[in-house]
Amino acid sequence: MPRASIVVPAYNAEATLDETLRSLVAQSFRDLEIVVVDDGSSDRTPAIARSIGDPRIRLVQQPNRGLAGARNSGIHAAKGEFVGFCDADDLWRPTKLARHVAHLDASPQVGLSYSGSELIDADGRSTGLAQRPRLSGVTAAHVFKRNPVGNGSAPVFRRAALDAIAWRPAQETARDWWFDETFRQSEDIECWLRLALTTDWDIAGVPGLLTRYRVAPGGLSAALDRQYDSWERMVAKLTPLAPDFMARHAPAARAYQLRYLARRAVSAGDADAALARLRAAFAASLRPAFEEPVKTGVTAAATLALAALGTGPVDTLRRAAARRTA
Amino acid sequence: MIRIAHLVDDTNPGGVTRYLDFLSTDPRFGFAAHEVIAVEKNRAGAVQTDAHIIVSHLAVSWRGLPGLMALRARHAGTPLVHVEHSYSEGFVARNVNARRRFGTLLSAAYAMFDRIVAVSQTQGEWLVRRGLVSDEALAVIPPCVDLSAFRALPAPDGPVRTVAALGRFHAQKGFDLLIRAMRASSRQDLRLVLIGDGPDRDALVALADGDPRISFAPFAADPAAALAQADAVAMPSRWEPFGLVALEARAAGRPVLVANVDGLTDQARDGAIAVAAPTVEAWTTALDSLGIADDAAPRATGREEAAALQWMALAADVLAPQAEGRAAA
């Protein structure tokens, strides 16, 4: 039985899967299995998974269920004591798994170990941007407001912690759910926050940018709206679970979320959307302005410059605005 | 005869009080003489007793720590046992931000005791996992009361109509979640009765918003009589180190829906119905699927005897070193 499993949800990922899997088979920690979940791809995804030729790769195929459903099938199939996730377009640094295994071995109370991420572009080149989250003393409020786990290719879970948040909805007959498959976005943060709100497993990070996380350029306004809607749905779902917590932290978390979406709109060059989000962020809560004045100010400046001057002159600000949290 | 002193600082008419009433008077616990000593909050140091074993049912707190040290110092040769009625994984998840500091508190308090008694297997596993209690120092003894009045209730007749929720109207019990789930339920034949009182009463009434299927009843001094009026019981608690109501409901032959948390996880292994997700949707589904109560459901038999035997074994265990000491001398 391998000590660690890496779940790779893959949907029509022929362009990137090979590189992803090569980064995983090259992990310095060797006692692992890689569970590739082909989520109903119509391209060469399964063929690529088979072509690597490493016996530690297992392929699970299913009709399309979405990212959460693919991850859940991967967790269901995983045999390791630790379960990590790497989306089929992201990459792991060679020492990533070793660092998380050492962390989880040394800290029996940590249920979710994560790291920072370097952001890469469509060609796998570094963008110079990174997610450098807080690594210790993480509370549910931090998870909700700042999502230190960052992205779906950053965490390695202890299996016992995953199983503490498993459930089986009435319509599901085959296996449990860990991620909520009714979400098409925000399924990550919903899972991390549910872990923080309902269990006593610690969420903690290890230093280093151990994940290389691919960001798609742009981001249409409609897509950002959908992202915000799913975030609000996550809040609505978890509010009955912890009403006091939500009453206390939702306004600030909402402001952070809107600020993030304003930055995404700046990156996409959509001044109107950025302005609207920024206004909504300030209306929701002034906490981000107090807790992170520089970043909030840079976001505001970039938004206003974009609105006044167009895309050219704000490139510098834009990069500054996107630094640390894309 | 062995004398055991039980220290308690919560004399509200809740589960702990009823547990201590039971074990100090029930003949099945007659292997020892049990004395219940009411302790002023955080003043365990003032306790004077020459009992052979001292059992703390106190709530651990920073302010109470000096008192526990004094208790230990004053009774240096007496085995000290602590029963953890208050804290559990669910409690910490919902209430504690500074988890490391909280762990330090529990470790410091537990260090005063020879044994720590968990009130459920799940709570015990959490205490060990968090490094708060060693395997050797841990005992698991689920609390009990005299269940005969519950077992004497006839099984509910026909399909489940009335679901009862009993307990303090406080965030812990999750009755807000239950009311939301009931309001989302399409079953018009179902009734939900919330029995109790507490700080959240007005908020819960407001949440029910006049739904004619939901009603409120005052605190029940006689829980068996309250359960007689119900066909099923719901416990959507956010934390629950043990969950006496679930045990009583099972003894009464009532189907009982429980949150999948802390001691209620144990109860689900013993026949309660676990609602795995703490969401409105999951609870609505659970309410909607309550069918006909199984009149052949086991009635939590032998629990009183088991609790008595476990206490007897624990008493013998903590007194053994002293007995050996005397034999050697």
TrEMBL record, chain A:
Xref: Gene3D superfamilies: Spore Coat Polysaccharide Biosynthesis Protein SpsA, Chain A
A molecular function GO annotation: transferase activity
Superkingdom of the organism of origin: Bacteria
Keyword Transferase set for record: yes
Annotated InterPro entries: Glyco_trans_2-like, Glycosyltransf_2, Nucleotide-diphossugar_trans
Alphabetized UniProt keyword annotations: Transferase
Domain Glycosyltransferase 2-like: 5-109
Record flagged with keyword Transferase: yes
Pfam family, one: Glycos_transf_2
Official protein name in the record: Glycosyl transferase family 2
From TrEMBL, chain B:
Cited SUPFAM superfamilies: UDP-Glycosyltransferase/glycogen phosphorylase
Domain of life the protein comes from: Bacteria
UniProt-listed InterPro entries: Glyco_trans_4-like_N, Glycosyltransferase_grp1
Alphabetized CDD domains for the sequence: GT4_PimA-like
Transferase among keywords: yes
Domain Glycosyltransferase subfamily 4-like N-terminal: start-end pairs: 43-148
Gene3D superfamilies: Glycogen Phosphorylase B (3.40.50.2000)
Keywords: Transferase
GO molecular function: hexosyltransferase activity
Name of protein: Glycosyltransferase involved in cell wall bisynthesis
Native source species: Roseivivax sediminis
Organismal lineage: Bacteria, Pseudomonadati, Pseudomonadota, Alphaproteobacteria, Rhodobacterales
